[in-house]
Amino acid sequence: MMKYFRTYPPGMQLLLFLLMTFTLFSLALAFIGVMLPKVYGVPTSAIQNITDKSAPVLIHVSLVAQGIGSLMMFAAPSLLFAYLAHPKPIKYLGLKAPQKPIHLLLAVLVMLGAMPVFMALQTLMGHINFGAEVQAKQEAAETVARAYLTMPTFADFIRTFLIVAILPAIGEELFFRGMIMRFTHKSSHNIVLAVLFSAIMFAFVHASYTGLPSIFLAGALLAVIYNLTGSLWCGIAAHLFFNGLQIIFAYVEKGNTNTGAAPTDTGIQWGFVAGGVVLFAGAFYMLWKTRTPLPRNWSDDFDQPQNSTTDENPAIFN
């Protein structure tokens, strides 16, 4: 009979998960560095410094490399560890259908309402001088993002949507909410700490200086959505909407203007932000009123009987 990782102490399980993540991501980097240049006939250095003016083949290869890295760093280790850790890996990761299907829609509406606030916060952060080195790194990251959003054809749009929206939405939710949040709750039995720590790690991995507060808040919101619905699919839907809407807007802008890069607006539209706050408040209130939260023992490796009066999390999230 297979000995599942759940029989090991929590610290050993975490170490195994981190080693698994490091190993798979290292294999991905090796594949990207050795195989992709041979397959596509372009040097690795050429795909590391792309811009929206780069040749389409370079942008394509860079996107493929991004997708492989995302898959092997987030989705693959989470799925593999869950399979080796528990006889019910899908349940272990929280990939169950929401008890109330309306939660999928409410999660998306909550994220839609929060997006203008995140964008305004990022704009405000952009006015802060973090120094020449930080600014150079930020500009380099934004240059790559603009390259990915060139999308001259519909096929390019589909490829970008798959790699930049769908893969991260699934992989990052599995990793940060399905695994990191679970490990934190398992060791602390504190849902607030689990939400905050998973959001901190989410923001740290994305490594964006101007976007750091927005990414942290988005990560915390996704963790709260998971906690209130009890289904990781709701967080995946909200995350996919957040990523995908920006790609759709960029593609539509290019189709309407036919000028290449989408226009940049550095100002804050406060009416847009106010409307988002209203939508967020209404959708979050409905999500709260209809919540089906994670039970107190949701991170346990072995099911434990509970009293019906203690199935839910502490009052702060109830």
UniProtKB/TrEMBL annotation:
InterPro entries (UniProt xref): CAAX_protease, Rce1/LyrA-like_dom
Keyword presence, Flavoprotein: no
One Pfam entry name: Rce1-like
Keyword Magnesium: no
Biological process per Gene Ontology, one example term: CAAX-box protein maturation
TM spans (from-to): 63-84, 104-125, 157-176, 188-205, 211-228, 233-252, 267-288
Residue segments, region Disordered: 298-318
Alphabetical UniProt keywords: Membrane, Transmembrane, Transmembrane helix
Domain CAAX prenyl protease 2/Lysostaphin resistance protein A-like: 158-244
MF term (GO), any: endopeptidase activity
Identification of the protein by name: CAAX prenyl protease 2/Lysostaphin resistance protein A-like domain-containing protein
